[in-house]
Amino acid sequence: MADLGDLYQEILLEHNSRPKNFRQLEDATATADGFNPLCGDKITLYIKVEDDAIADVGFQGAGCAISRASASMLTQSIKGQTVGRAQEIFQAFHIMLTEPGADLDYDTLGDLETLSGVIEFPTRIKCAILAWHTMISALDGSGPVTTE
Ligand code: ZN
Predict the structure, then answer these.
(1) Structural domain total, the chain
(2) Which domain holds residue 88?
(3) Could you count the other beta carbons within 10 Å of the beta carbon of residue 82?
(4) Could you read off the pLDDT of 116-143 as tens digits, one per residue?
(5) Å from CA of 51 to ligand 1 middle
(6) pTM for the whole structure
(7) Which listed residue, 32, 56, 131, 144, has the most CB atoms within 10 A of its CB?
């Protein structure tokens, strides 16, 4: 973690030690499992969709600090948004982590920008993006996710 820099480290550690929405939703309407074999990160994401909006979201699982922090930030950023908006946030986040030098949509990213430093550590990108692919899979109903 030390190599990610102090700014990122502080925010990541906060989300890692006190993750937001770290719970199972009994009334979830969409759920999916995600697994990152490179690091061993596992996540189960629970989403309650009501009237095309994300009424509630929670996650459980075990993984490294980056995977937990990213999942925690995901739940904060998509809760209360429409499904379409959640997919836009995924796209902005995906571009940030996979396209070096791309113009970033800072309005859409919000606090997620703090994870941008991960792009310098290719093996950790899977950790950061796991929860997001899992979210898309849950919304699409396309089954478990394994990053490769
Ligand atoms: Zn990881």
Answers:
(1) 1
(2) 2-146
(3) 14
(4) 888 888 889 999 999 999 999 999 998 8
(5) 34
(6) 0.92
(7) 131
